[in-house]
Design brief:
Layout lengths: L9 H7 L6 E5 L5 H14 L8 E4 L3 H13 L6 E3 L1 H17 L4 E3 L4 H10 L6 H16 L4 H9 L9 H14 L1 E2 L2 E4 L1 H14 L1 H10 L2 E4 L7 H11 L5 E5 L14 H4 L1 H4 L4 E5 L1 E2 L4 H12 L13 E2 L8 E7 H17 L7 E5 L5 H10 L4 E3 L9 H15 L12 H9 L12 H23 L5 H14 L8 E5 L8 E6 L10 H6 L1 H15 L2 E12 L23 E2 L3 H4 L14 H6 L11 H18 L3 H4 L2 H10 L4 H5 L6 H15 L5
Parallel strand pairs: 1-8, 1-9, 2-3, 2-7, 4-6, 7-8, 10-11, 12-17, 12-18, 13-15, 13-16, 14-15, 16-17
Antiparallel strand pairs: 5-6
Helix pairs in contact: 1-2, 4-9, 5-6, 5-8, 6-8, 7-8, 9-10, 9-11, 14-22, 15-16, 17-20, 18-19, 25-27, 25-29
Bound molecules: adenosine-5'-triphosphate (ATP) and magnesium ion.
Length: 688
C-alpha cells in the first residue's frame, strides 16, 4: 500500500488521520478537500479500522466517483464503493426490494416528462413544454425537500420560489403524477423514488437495516454543501445509530439550491455531532495568487449567512499571469477571440485537455463549438459521460470482444501488451498511426485513441490482465461512466465544472440575464447570491490562466444592449471592446504617426518604438526603482510586477486616478488593488 501522508499539509493530515467518528472539513475551493478524504479513506483502511468493502464514499457525480476509485487504486486500495447517492441507492434497492415489496416488480422511470405532461393536461393546465418542464422542476424540488403534494402549497409560500402556475395546481399535478406511477403491473420509480424507497426500507424493515449496517460501517460525503433533505435522510438511514461519517464541503460553493440542496447540513454538522473533529483549510493548492485574489474579491462581495462562513483563500502556487477581461461586439466575435486565445495557449505548450470553456447554460456551447471547429481545435462537450455511448466506441468494443474470442491471439496480449493488440484491432475502424484531417475522422480517431490509452492504463495496472479480463474492466468502466480523458478542450456548464480543475479556464458570456440568469434576478437576492457562487466556482477552477469575457450583442450586427455581469462590479472597469478579427484585420495604429503597430511592446505603448512617447524620464526611473524594490520584497521576478513596456506606458499616460491607471495596457484590477496607491503616488509626485 502506498499511502504517503506527507502529501498532505498539517491541517489536512488532522482530518485524514482523525480517529473513527464524525469529521467535518469546511474549506474553500482548491484547498484539498477531495484529496484529504481520499487519504482519509486510505488511512482508515490502512490502519485496519475498516475493511475496504465496508466503506461507502458518496460523490456528486459519477465521474467524481470514478476519479476517487482511480486515485484509491493508485494507492493500492480496491473495493471501496464510491458512488453518487442515486447510484448507491439504486444498487441497494435492487438488492433489498424483494424483502420489502415481495414480487411486485419495479422499473426505473428515467424520463418523467410524458407522465408529468399527461398529469398537467388532466388538471386542465396549459401543457406546453415550458410549463411542463417548470412543473417537473417543482415536483423534483418538492421531493428532494421531502415535501408531499398536500404540503406543497404551504411550503412554497415560505420560500422565494414562484410556482409556474397556481401552487394548488402544481400540487394536484404532483399528486396525479405520483399516482400514475403505480399500476397493477408494478411500479415506476423516478430517481428521487430510489432514494425515498431506500430510506424507507432501512427505516421500516429492521432486517434490511441490520443487514445493511453489518455491511457498511464508514461513510464519506464529498461536496456536502449541496446535499438535499432527501439525501440527508438516506444518509441518516445508512448511519443508523452510528457516527462514522466524514463530510467535506464549502458553503460558498452551494450551487444546487434550486434543486432543494442546502448548506445547512454542513454548517450545522458540529451541532449535530458535538464531538466531531472540525478542520478548516485555507491554503489553495490549485490556483495562483492572481486567481485566488480574484476569487476572494468575487466572493468577498457576497451577502447572507453562507457568505459569513467564507474563508480567505491563500494561493499556494507560484505567481502567474493576471486574469484577463475582454468585451466583444457579439457572441461569434467573443467565441472567435476565445478560440484564438486557446490556439495560442496550445502553441505555448498548454495541453488542450487542460483548457476549459465554461458557461452558464448549455445552449451557450454551440457558438463556441463552432468557433473551435473553425479553428481546428479538438474539444468535447461535457457530460463526457457519453464516451462509451459514442457509436465508434461501441463499435470498437464489439471488435475487441470479437478479437478476444479468437484463438490465434498473440501471446503478448496480456497486461502492457494489450495496447498493441487493441491498436491492431481498431486500425480498420480509423485508428491510423497519425491523426487524420477532417473534423469527423479526427473525432473518431480521438475516441479510438483515447480507448487504446485506457486499455494501456488498465494493462499497466494489472500486468496479468488478459483480453477477457480487459473486457470486464471496460464494461465496468462503461457502467461507472468513467470515460478516459480525451485530449481535447472541455466545454461545460459551470454547474458541471464543480470539483474539477484546469490549467486554463475561459469564463464566457458574462452578461446580466445570463449570469446572473434572468429568472434568478426575478426571484431576488437569494438566488442572485447563488449565481454569484456559481461564478466563484468558475473562477476557482483555474490553476493558472483565467479569461473572463462577454459580448454586447448576441448576433453580429445586433443591438449592443447587453451589460456586463454585476459580479465584476468594483472588480474590473470595462475594458476597451476587442475589435472583430483583432490585430490581423484591423491593426492597432501608432497614436503618434498612425502606422500599424507590430510588436507587443509597441501595442502596450500604443506607439512605434521610434516615435516620441512624451514620458517624463524621471518618473519612469522612479517607477523602475519602485518595481525593483517591490519585486525583491515579494520575491518575484520584476516583470511579474510590471513589464518595462507597461511602466513606460504608465509614465507616458500619467494616470490621475485608478480608473485611468486601469486603462493602461498590462494593468489589471488585481494590480491596481495591489500597487495602485504607490504607482499613482509616484506619478502624481505625492510619494513621501
Ligand atoms: P473544490 O472545492 O474545488 O472541490 P478541493 O478542496 O476538493 O476543491 P482538491 O481538488 O482536493 O481541492 O485539490 C485541489 C488541487 O490541489 C488538486 O490538484 C490537489 O492535488 C492539490 N493539492 C491538494 N492538497 C495538496 C497539498 N497538500 N500539496 C500539494 N497539492 C495539493
Ligand atoms: Mg473537491
Amino acid at each position: 500500500m502506498a499511502i504517503n501522508l506527507d502529501e498532505l499539509d498539517p491541517d489536512q493530515r488532522v482530518a485524514a488521520t482523525a480517529p473513527r467518528g464524525p469529521v467535518c472539513i469546511l474549506a474553500g475551493a482548491g484547498t484539498g478537500k477531495t484529496r484529504t478524504i481520499t487519504y482519509r479513506i486510505a488511512h482508515l483502511i490502512d490502519q485496519g479500522f475498516v475493511g475496504p468493502n465496508r466503506v461507502l464514499a458518496v460523490t456528486f457525480t459519477a465521474r467524481a466517483a470514478g476519479e476517487m476509485r482511480h486515485r484509491l487504486a493508485r494507492m493500492g486500495i480496491g473495493g471501496v464503493q464510491a458512488r453518487t447517492f442515486h447510484a448507491a441507492a439504486r444498487r441497494q434497492l435492487r438488492y433489498f426490494w424483494p424483502q420489502v415489496a415481495g414480487d411486485l416488480p419495479w422499473r426505473l422511470l428515467d424520463n418523467k416528462f410524458p407522465l408529468v405532461g399527461r398529469a398537467t393536461r388532466s388538471v386542465g393546465v396549459d401543457s406546453g413544454t415550458e410549463t411542463v418542464r417548470d412543473i417537473l422542476g417543482e415536483i423534483e424540488w418538492a421531493k428532494a425537500s421531502l415535501i408531499t403534494p398536500d404540503a406543497y402549497a404551504e411550503a412554497i409560500a415560505g420560500t422565494q420560489r414562484t410556482p409556474p402556475v397556481e401552487a394548488e395546481k402544481v400540487a394536484e399535478v404532483y399528486r396525479r403524477y405520483e399516482r400514475a406511477k403505480t399500476s397493477e403491473e408494478g411500479m415506476l420509480l423516478d430517481f428521487d423514488d430510489l432514494l425515498l424507497h431506500t430510506a424507507a426500507a432501512l427505516e421500516n424493515a429492521p432486517a434490511v437495516a441490520e443487514e445493511f449496517h453489518e455491511q457498511y460501517r464508514s461513510f464519506v460525503v464529498d461536496e456536502y454543501q449541496d446535499v438535499t433533505p432527501l439525501q440527508q435522510r438516506v444518509l441518516d438511514a445508512w448511519l443508523g445509530e452510528r457516527d462514522d461519517l466524514t463530510v467535506v464541503g464549502d458553503a460558498n460553493q452551494t450551487i444546487y439550491s434550486f434543486t432543494g440542496a442546502s448548506p445547512d447540513f454542513l454548517l450545522n454538522f458540529t451541532r449535530k455531532y458535538p464531538d466531531a473533529t472540525l478542520t478548516r483549510l485555507e491554503r489553495d493548492y490549485r490556483s495562483t495568487p492572481q486567481v485566488t485574489r480574484l476569487a476572494n474579491a468575487v466572493i468577498g462581495r457576497a451577502k447572507g449567512r453562507v457568505a459569513g462562513t467564507r474563508l480567505e483563500l491563500t494561493g499556494m502556487r507560484d505567481p502567474g499571469p493576471e486574469p484577463e477581461f475582454s468585451v466583444h461586439d457579439d457572441e461569434p466575435a467573443e467565441a472567435a477571440a476565445v478560440a484564438k486565445k486557446i490556439a495560442e495557449l496550445i502553441d505555448s505548450g498548454v495541453s488542450p485537455a487542460e483548457i476549459a470553456v465554461l458557461y452558464r447554460i448549455n445552449a451557450q456551447s454551440a457558438v463556441f463549438e463552432q468557433a473551435l471547429s473553425d479553428a481546428g481545435i479538438v474539444y468535447q462537450v461535457r457530460g463526457g459521460e457519453g464516451f462509451f455511448n459514442r457509436a465508434e466506441v461501441r463499435k470498437a468494443i464489439t471488435e475487441l470482444v470479437r478479437a478476444a474470442q479468437r484463438d490465434d491471439l498473440p501471446a503478448e496480449a496480456v497486461g502492457p501488451g494489450l495496447r498493441v493488440v487493441a491498436r491492431a484491432v481498431l486500425a480498420p475502424l480509423g485508428l491510423t498511426p497519425e491523426e487524420p484531417e477532417g473534423a469527423q475522422a479526427r473525432e473518431r480517431w480521438q475516441s479510438l485513441n483515447a480507448l487504446v490509452e485506457l486499455v494501456h492504463e488498465l494493462g499497466l495496472a494489472t500486468p496479468d490482465l488478459d483480453m477477457n479480463g480487459l473486457l470486464v474492466q471496460l464494461k465496468n468502466r462503461a457502467e461507472a461512466k468513467h470515460p478516459p480523458t480525451v485530449q481535447g478542450v472541455t466545454l461545460a456548464s459551470l454547474h458541471a465544472a464543480k470539483g474539477l480543475e484546469w490549467d486554463a479556464v475561459f469564463l464566457v458570456g458574462l452578461v446580466e440575464n445570463t449570469l446572473p440568469i434572468s429568472h434568478a434576478i426575478k426571484a431576488g437576492d437569494h438566488q442572485i447570491e447563488e449565481e454569484r457562487r456559481l461564478f466563484y466556482v468558475g473562477v476557482t477552477r483555474a490553476r493558472t490562466h483565467l479569461f473572463c469575457s462577454w459580448a454586447l450583442a448576441r448576433q453580429e450586427g445586433g443591438r449592443k444592449s447587453r451589460k456586463r455581469t454585476r459580479f465584476l462590479d468594483g472588480i474590473v472597469t470595462d475594458p476597451e471592446p476587442v475589435e472583430r478579427g483583432t490585430s490581423r484585420n484591423r491593426p492597432k495604429r501608432c497614436r503618434v504617426c498612425g502606422s500599424p503597430l507590430e510588436s507587443p511592446q509597441e501595442k502596450v505603448l500604443r506607439r512605434c518604438i521610434d516615435c516620441p512617447g512624451g514620458a517624463d524620464d524621471g518618473i519612469f526611473e522612479q517607477l523602475r526603482a519602485w518595481r525593483a524594490e517591490t519585486a525583491r520584497e515579494d520575491q518575484v521576478p520584476a516583470y511579474i510586477v510590471f513589464s518595462d513596456a507597461t511602466l513606460m506606458a504608465i509614465a507616458e499616460a500619467m494616470p490621475a486616478d485608478e480608473r485611468e491607471l486601469l486603462g493602461v495596457s498590462g494593468v489589471g484590477p488585481v494590480k491596481v488593488d495591489k500597487y495602485g496607491d504607490r504607482v499613482l503616488a509616484i506619478v502624481n509626485g505625492t510619494l513621501d
